[in-house]
Amino acid sequence: MTIGKLNLLKNAAALLGVAVFLLYSSGALAQAPQVAHYNSLELKRESATSVQFAFALNLPQVLHQLLAPQLTYPVFLQSYADMPDPALDRELAKASAALSAKAYFTLPSGVKANLKQWQFPDKQALRDSFKISQMLLNMPPSAASHLDPVQVLAQVQAKTPINRVQLQLPPSLYPIVVSLPNDKFWLTEQIPMAIVELP
After folding, report:
1. How far apart are CA 85 and CA 48, in angstroms?
2. Where is 161: in which H helix or E strand?
């Protein structure tokens, strides 16, 4: 009887250990994708009047908000993954125009310098990101896999030197962490703009 109870206690302890390990693992893994999905931006001066924007984005989510928020996310991913090249080119042109309209520097003079020359990944890489996002939707929330950020480039050109300016980005990119050579900050729906000084 004592040996039986001892075995039960050992089994219970082993099960408890496994349960604690699984809870810890799934909790840690569940947090990882959240960090991985934050959008980010790095600003690099190209000349006195030109700044490059290097974004790392969860591009399927951004494009969903920009182009077809009326669709559910799974329907959007499927329809855009299957879209022929000419139609996808038109959609990316729309996305560029929508981003440019709401992404800009405001210079001290009050003039707005909009982000232009948006460079998205090639269409096959974009389709791959839609398909991977589809697969991730079918995985358990605790899965360690996540969509790697996609690089998107843009540029601001002004007629006067860009030094101390106000930056505003479209809500579809929030939350986004912005990195400068001498600073780092977040833009969110609650903090949609910031004053930046470019060295």
Report:
1. 37
2. none
Q: Which two tokens stand for residue 72?
A: 């559910």
Task: Please tell me whether residue 123 adopts helix, strand or coil conformation.
Answer: helix
Residue 159's Cβ-side half-sphere holds a number of Cα atoms within 13 Å equal to: 4
Structure tokens at 9: 């206690």
pLDDT of residue 175: 96
Residue 4 has pLDDT above 80, yes or no: no
Per-residue pLDDT tens digits for 81-96 = 999 999 999 999 999 9
In 3D space, the residue among 63, 62, 53 whose CA is nearest the CA of residue 113 turns out to be: 53
For residue 161, CA distances in Å to 20, 70, 94, 153 come to: 58, 41, 29, 21
Give backbone dihedrals phi and psi of 69, rounded to 5 degrees, phi first.
Answer: -65, -15
Q: What is residue 54's predicted lDDT score, i.e. its pLDDT? A: 98
Question: Rounded to two decimals, what is the model's pTM?
Answer: 0.79
pLDDT digits (tens, 9 = 90+) for 56-70: 999 999 999 999 999
Write the DSSP symbol of residue 46.
E
Name the nearest CA neighbour of 55 among 111, 103, 113, 106: 103
CB atoms within 10 A of CB 171: 12
Quote the CA–CA distance of 186 and 83 in Å, as a whole number: 34
Is the CB of residue 156 less than 8 Å from the CB of residue 51? yes
Q: According to the model, what pLDDT value does residue 145 have? A: 61
Query: What gap in Å lies between CA 193 and CA 189, rounded to an integer?
Result: 9
**What integer pLDDT is reported at residue 199 of this predicted model?**
87
